[in-house]
Design brief:
single chain, 107 residues, mainly beta, four-stranded parallel sheet, three-stranded parallel sheet
Length: 107
């Protein structure tokens, strides 16, 4: 399944319990007007979200037991593009935003 033409989400964007292991199909996504939630998924990496520049409703990355690489959200964090609360916990690796920006984005 590919969302290669998706550049903007006007509401919130959630992946939960899905079959996605990465975000490669979202390589053109630049803006999410609501919250980005990635919860209890099969994700191993956030690779594919490198074009993301704005998340207006907060960021929740919770309970993804295989998720070890957060490098895909480095750009949005580095440009202070996330408005609202940010929670990263219960994953295989749980870096802080500062660690992700500093390059310690995967394990």
């Amino acid at each position: 399944l590919s969302f290669n033409h998706l550049e903007e989400v006007l509401g919130s964007f959630t992946i939960r319990d899905g079959s996605f292991t990465d975000m490669a199909g979202f390589s053109r996504l630049q803006k999410i007007e609501g919250k980005l939630s990635l919860e209890q998924s099969l994700l191993t990496t956030l690779s594919g979200l490198e074009s993301l520049q704005v998340v207006r409703g907060g960021l929740s990355i919770l309970d993804n037991s295989k998720l070890k690489s957060f490098c895909g959200i480095r750009t949005v964090l580095d440009h202070n593009g996330v408005s609202g609360p940010m929670v990263i916990e219960g994953n295989a690796y749980n870096p802080t935003p500062a660690q992700i920006i500093g390059g310690n984005c995967d394990q």
